[in-house]
Amino acid sequence: MTCPFCQEDIRGRERSGNKCGKCGKVYVFDPKTNPLGLHDLRVRRHVDKLRAGRGLRFTTSQLWLSLARKQVAEPTTPFAYFGCYLGLVVGAVIIAVSGWAAYVHAVPTAVASMVVVTLIVRRFVRPGAARGRLVSVAMLLDAFAEQLWGVWPRLHGGPVEGLVDDSRPAGHRLARPERVLLCPVNAATACLVANGVPQRLNLHTAQRLDQVPPGLPVLILRDASVVGQRFAARAVAALGPRAVDLGLTPAQARADRHLPRLKGAPVAPETLGHLGLSEADTAWLAEGWWVPLASVRPAKLIAAVEKSVARTDPDHAAAAAVGFLTWPGSAR
């Protein structure tokens, strides 16, 4: 890895105890010992992505999920490297059958076979092997937050620039709001408030139904999960046509391959029948899959809320067409 201070490449034996053997400075994350393979420079690169060149602020949860994208995209299973092993066996068999005399001519065929077999197995075997397994972030959010808020400032001379603490309830209350943003995901609300979105758009934020003022248009943001879907269904049923569910919906989450997909315990499909979902969305949720709203990067989250507000008319028909897939920008 590269030392975040002296920028020199340091091997494993040169960085015992997270200390650079060349400049002597101590860093926060080491890819050999961190469950997500983190190092300080990688954290900085993700910070730059979340800030989007505009100085945007982001929460601990958003950075955590951004750094976990690669890890949750490739959950560890007993078949995680099965394709590589099978490809090696096929290549060895081809060389053996061809005879050592024809070794030179057999090698290209063997290598090509290894690549093809590996790709086929990765495409079809690994998803099936992971189907019955849970998928979660390898490093707990609390442990990550402790390193970021407690250790990073001490070693780097200050906090991570743009970072917002989402461990405390966030919100923006107004005496005379024009609309309500109903979002049970504190990380998303904290991000929007830190970037001045509710203040600028005259939005009253709420995390529970009983916090929603009467008579105002309501925009709903939530996770693409069983819990999120049920929350949105209850809100729409209670608030009527003044409520618009912006997502993240299961269909939006399944279609965006850049969002990290987590997997919890499965649920019985029949318990989801009242939610009005498609067969594919119901099956996806029933298997335990879900995508956190906090995995949507600040720029896209902000643009979605701004676009929704701009398109909201008195009967809110226009806002109903707004979804994550039509939001400006990309999840990447």
Q: What report would you give on this structure?
A:
The protein has 332 residues and is an alpha/beta fold. The chain has three domains: 12-75 and 136-156, no CATH class; 82-130; 169-326, Dna Topoisomerase Vi A Subunit, Chain: A, domain 2, CATH 3.40.1360.10. The chain contains eleven helices and eight strands. A four-stranded parallel sheet has the order 4-3-5-6, sandwiched between helices. α3 (82-98) runs antiparallel to α4 (103-130). The longest helix has 28 residues, at 103-130. It is flat, with a radius of gyration of 24 Å. It starts with 39 loop residues before the first helix and ends in a 21-residue tail after the last helix.
Q: Quaternary status of these chains? A: single chain
Main beta-sheet annotation: 4 strands, parallel
Element-by-element helix/strand order = HEHHHHEEHHEEHEHEHEH
Helix segment count? 11
Q: So what's the overall shape?
A: flat
Strand elements, count: 8
What is the CA-based Rg, rounded? 24 Å
Number of domains: 3
Q: What's the rounded overall pLDDT mean?
A: 85
As a percent range, the share of helical residues equals: 40-55%
The class by helix and strand makeup works out as alpha/beta
Top CATH class of the largest domain? Alpha Beta
